[in-house]
## 1
Amino acid sequence: MENNRNKYLMKNTLLFTLGNLGSKLITFFLVPLYTSALTTAQYGVVDLVATVSTVAIPIITINICESVMRFALDKDADQEQITQIGTYIFLFACLIGLIVIPICTRFEQISQYAVLTYFYVITSAASQLYLCDLRGKEKLLHYSIGNILHTFFIALFNVIFLLAFKMQIEGYLLAFICANLITSFYALLVGKGYKSFRLKKINKKLLRDMSKYSIVLIPNSFMWWIMNSSDRIMVSSMVGISANGIYAVSYKLPTLVSTLTSIFNQAWGYSAIREDGACDEEEYNNRVFKMLTGIVMLIGIGILTFVKPFLSIYVSDEFVSAWKYTPFLIIGYVYLTLGSFMATSYTVHKDSFGYLFSGMFGAIFNIVLNFALIPFIGVYGAAIATCISYVCVFLFRLIHTRKYINYKIGNIEFLFGSLILILSSVAIYLNNNIGFVIQVILFGVAVCILGKPWLSMVKRIIDIKGK
């Protein structure tokens, strides 16, 4: 049984790695293109458009993509009905979403891009919905290919629009719109979602259940927007749009932490649903949690160690100062990743209120701290507020999910990993060679203490490929 559950988890992890890691790496290496083709102010504008999209999509679609994915994983799921409900709600969202245009005109920085922002939102919603449809149907290979295609076309169209045609902000937005459309058509084709456009009587009970589950997640998505993106709007208004452009770049390396580990968390969600009710469910969950803790701590410490020399060659000179804010963000993302693992208990039990309460808890801290800190210490205030709010979410979920699983943090991986992470964050501000040497030593110690999960994971991957 242990071998089967590990094989299932590793197989899904590899499939998600194929799509997510490949696409995220392409996106990551597009940053030099953006920072060379766009000024700090222009990069701040496109980041603001992405922020508006993050808020608008869950509201106008009532977050239906989450229900499409989760309900399709039930053993007795009527997948065609589930996709049809998702499609009907999306078509309705296309009309409701027109409100994005007058809202955008109220923001001076993006008012002239209001129509493009609308299409950016709608096409992003379509690609999210039908990629989630593939995940719900466990067509994970097709889902991974869809992610790769999405990012490939983003890169291709960015090269065409930004480098060849010099279209700047318009080119950036058009690149995403075109890539979203292609990805949506691909997912509709391979997942046979096009059948959902046929007129057919809808299961009203299923519609109610799906809507109830997803609607509760709307405030949760808004709370995550507050923690992820509202600080950028506040930095733009309180400090300046150029400062937001630099702050947006400072997010790129920390988000690698969540990108790499979210791949595993996505795969773990399928295993967690399978393990629900198993006699050793709690023990197995804690073994996996301990392994993930070692992995995410080591990733965070590694990024902290090399962020300064890397940024000096990764971005243009005017963006290099972004390293100053990354330590706070990296710490926050490490604990957010662990909190996201715990949140799979909410998914297993369809407890969307758990997501809501934990998101609200972190968002309240974030808003209060942003208003308190940004006016006095500028961008540092936004980074510190984000860090504290993510840690608060982790602590909330650690306590709140005990009704499902009692996650244990009194292990070497968590305690020593946290200590080294904090020490490395302090050492980075010793702006000289001594600081870097201290960081390298701390990283070496972390490898010795936290490297075991990596070796175990590599061994399992080799065993799976060998068989």
## 2
Amino acid sequence: MNALERELNYPFGDTLPAPGRALEVAPGVKWIRMALPFALDHINLWLLADELDGRAGWTIVDCCITRDEAKAQWDQVIEHELRGLPILRVVVTHMHPDHIGLAHWLCERFSTPQHDCRLWISATDYNAARVASHSTTAFGGEHAAQFFASHGLNDPESLERIRARANYYPGMVPAVPQSFRRMQDGDRIAIGGRAWRCIVGYGHAPEHISLYCDELKVLISGDMMLPRISTNVAVYDVEPEADSLALFLESIDRFEALSPDTLTLPAHGKPFFGLHTRIRQLHDHHRDRLAEVMQACGEKACSARDLMPILFKRELDLHQTTFAMGESVAHLHMLWHQGKLARALGSDGVWRFSRRE
């Protein structure tokens, strides 16, 4: 546990749900943990006891990527944790593969002629997922390679591997349900007789939805609030001038109004108390990174690739490198949009940023 984590309180200690099983963390709220084949090796999913249209069952929040191992774990959860009741709806916080990947499989599995097991998601993320599952966006292919090259990632091996990832998203999200129920900021969804309020977040995904229950003082934060790592906040080829970091920092401030006693249920890491402390930690983290960027760009004009060793002081694989490049661009763009940095396109086709005098 690092120094920042010691400021948080993990009420379940080191206890984790066993594979294919669930752990109750609040009345009617169960925690599932599934493996991922990445450096970030797990995702947390949530089971909420529910009743919809007079039928008892469960609402699930997030799904895991499409892979046989995840389907097998869901089979175990369905057998051991649902008490013979159906999944009534699938809530997805946002369009990233580990969150929406199996939504189509679960919705089809639990839909009947009398009841559609519906996907609930923001309209922006639904449509982004539909587009990405049929082609590619932000995760690989020629356009992504060109974008990263324009920010200084020019080694041929990395670019070729990025070009080869044109099917990266569809490989984990081969399909998205044909219809959905839209969630918007401020909506109140009745789940298990309790109201859960939708809280929108930007910067990590197009229109991320977190869920807060005032009665339980529980926040299902998705990826907007993680305890151990900072959320990936990046700029990618589909929105190349985005100011993602500013949007993210404004978004997490929406959680300031929640109870100090809120139990936060993150998509990665362990449930924790200390939401307001974590908000401050994330602001401090990005303030320090922005200061490093300003210092570097004051010494010489820098590309996003130039800043990676400054912002990420560890060895990165290609998967992590693309995230790190996107984050480096996001930090540069926040300062550029604020007017603190100027950018110029070099004769080599690379954007470099320097301090405005």
## 3
Amino acid sequence: MAKNIDLTGRVALVTGGTRGIGKAIAAALKEAGATVYITGTNEEKTKKAAEELGVNGIKMNVCDREEVKKAVSEIVENEGKIDILVNNAGITRDTLFVRMKDEDWDSVIETNLTGIYNVTRQIVPLMVKKRSGTIINISSVVGFTGNPGQVNYASAKAALVGFTKSLAKEVAPRGIRVNAIAPGYITTDMTQKIPQKIKETLIKSIPMRREGKPSEVADVVLFLASDMSSYVTGTTIHVNGGLF
């Protein structure tokens, strides 16, 4: 899809862009011609990933509001704007609810929900000022289906859908679009650690009978970041092979 979409001249920020889905999104945006910045909490890993992709890397913890403010200011100082924001940074702390510790709940909500607030809060005023921009939030199929052992993660991802719909209605008159993508079972470093028998059961539950590729999520990001989706806002696109 990147070959058919031209994002030349646009500046994109992808949080959590050092691996997996985030890294694939950054690669696709760069291929489409955008100037891309990725963030990660580890400075060395962020720099390495940025060099591999041929993009810009900035250390940024989405939970640290001062660090977020500093990173956004650095991008604006360099580029003068941010046209595309992809809120991808997230963590998991999976465990059954009866065993869940307060820190398991707090850390997931803080990163996967409040972290998105922190970043978006800094960028929306910039987009409002220039009356254009697109924000893409990465939710998850479990925000719609639920999943044992992921009460914290599913709660944050479900809340993100409400965040997307509400913000979209507020900023649409200013030329800003806000959408979400809910990936299903996508091949990443994290999913590779799942035992083979469990993986086989998961794949059987997917109508397309296979796991998705990070690039298949990235293709939808390209669509939402481009003018091809100029009348699309406040919605969630599911990328899950028919799982939900």
